[in-house]
Amino acid sequence: MDVAWLVRRAAGGDRWAWERLVDQYARLIWAMTRDFKLGESDAADVTQVTWLRLLEHIDRLEHPARLASWLAATARHECLRAVAARKKIVLVHDDTALTDTAAHQPEVDERLLADERAQAVRKALSRLPHQWQRLLELLMADPPASYAEISDQLGLPVGSIGPTRGRCLERLRVLLQAS
Questions:
Q1: Cβ-based neighbour number of residue 11 at 10 Å
Q2: pLDDT along the chain (179 residues), means of 10
Q3: From the CB of residue 136, how many other CB atoms can be counted at a distance below 10 Å?
Q4: pTM of the model
Q5: I need a surface site. Which of 54, 75, 125, 169 has the fewest CB within 10 A?
Q6: Which residue range(s) make up the domain with 66?
Q7: What is the rounded CA–CA span in Å between residue 53 and residue 41?
Q8: Domain tally, the chain
Q9: C-alpha–C-alpha distance, residues 120 and 118, integer Å
């Protein structure tokens, strides 16, 4: 299936196209988080922020056919932010170190913004029905659960999982835009 066509359809609000993109690229993003050896929580944050970035920019992608590269670069950037955030926890005992940290204020501001975005995603997720939260959790697991496994765990017919995911992502998008 043509990726550029799917991107254009998803940008126009086509849930089916969005679901195909998630199906096709979820493992790519999770693989990137594994390459950076992120913990489960950081990996989940990176994954959420990467999909959020796509949701925010899908209608402005210069080269929709190169979506895999765009997602990989975005996930890599978010992984680097997560790694950098871990390394910034430093105990200091002198004023010189504090002064040096203040010189890096833009990096701190950037991380705060990323943390705020991740918090907004978590808050929006918490406002979804429990079964939708669980569905997203299963779809974004490493590795993602199969539709058969999701059907068994949530008691949903396999044929309703994709449309349910589409409704869930649309509601999540609305909640994020409202926040």
A1: 18
A2: 92 92 92 89 91 91 92 91 73 53 59 78 88 87 84 91 88 84
A3: 18
A4: 0.51
A5: 125
A6: 3-178
A7: 18
A8: 1
A9: 5
